[in-house]
Amino acid sequence: MTLFSPKTAVVEREGWDGEAKGLAHLVDGQLDTRHGAILYLEEVCVSFDGFKALNHLNLDIGVGELRCIIGPNGAGKTTMMDVITGKTRPDSGAVFFGQTIDLTRYREAEIAQLGIGRKFQKPTVFEAMTVFENLQLALAGPRSVWASLRARLTGEQRDRIEALLLRVRLQEQRHRVAGLLSHGQKQWLEIGMLLAQDPQLLLLDEPVAGMTDAETEKTAELLLSLKGHHSLMVVEHDMAFVEAIAERVTVLAEGSVLAEGSLAQVQADERVIEVYLGR
């Protein structure tokens, strides 16, 4: 995990005085969310060889909200996350983190350091290291792996790791090599590693895919415990899991929002039934 100074990123670029002024609040730990939303996507378009992956997409996520995103394959869900995290640049439209941070001006590493964490469907942990060492590395910053592991932890850092172990329910696995964890436990560990970076917004791509029923239930409890402390965007196909965690659901189809509301509302929408849920 690479750490990056957002303040440095801004002041090194020409013509960014206004952006730097707005970002100063973020560096001090205060993201400007005066209008209640942490993420805005306005009229976002992305095309690949003539195919419109995102087609005038408009979406916003509230501070502390847990929003579920559903939709058929090819609806634009992954492309949307790629745009938010800087992996893909939109052809047009605006993507704002809070009121002042234009994410289209930043690279992936910079966006991660601004406070947006992303978890892909397949867990990516250091399998040869213990659960504790994985979390230690996530806290370590820009040092090399071995320098990080050799460094003496402060009491505050050790307390932070203990709190993370408790949060992701891996306190009894702390000394276990990560490669020996179950699939679900690896997912929880990676979420813990993201939480170590203290992101304000978490993007989770199909977090319960491949999990047992028991692991899925525990994951729902974990994400619900994060709501309010973090804002979460969860892309998922498991409707039972969505029902367990979501107050508000957004349905994407053909690169734009097809429907939005409670799960019951979108499940009753004839357009959603036709393109995604079936009868």
Order of helices and strands: HHEEEHEEHEHHHHEHEHEEHH
Query: Measured on Cα atoms, how large is the radius of gyration?
Result: 19 Å
Span of the ends, CA to CA: 44 Å
Number of helices: 12
Q: What's the mean pLDDT score?
A: 85
Structural class: alpha/beta
Choose one word for the global shape. Answer: globular
Q: Level of helix content?
A: 25-40%
Largest sheet: 6 strands, mixed
Major β-sheet strand ordering: 6-7-8-3-9-10
Low-confidence residue ranges: 1-25
Task: Tell me what you see in this structure.
The structure is a single chain. By secondary structure, the protein is α/β, with parallel strands linked by helices. It contains 12 helices and 10 strands. It has helices at residues 6-11, 17-27, 77-84, 108-114, 131-140, 145-150, 155-167, 183-196, 213-226, 239-245, 263-267, 270-277; strands spanning 37-48, 51-62, 66-70, 92-97, 101-102, 116-119, 201-205, 231-235, 248-253, 256-261. The strands form 2 sheets. Strands 6-7-8-3-9-10 form a 6-stranded mixed sheet, with helices on both faces. Helix 9 links the parallel strand 7 and strand 8. Helix 5 (131-140) crosses helix 7, helix 5 packs parallel to helix 8 and helix 7 (155-167) packs across helix 8. The longest helix is centred in the last third of the chain and has 14 residues, at 183-196. It is globular and about 55 Å long. The model is unreliable at 1-25 (pLDDT under 50).
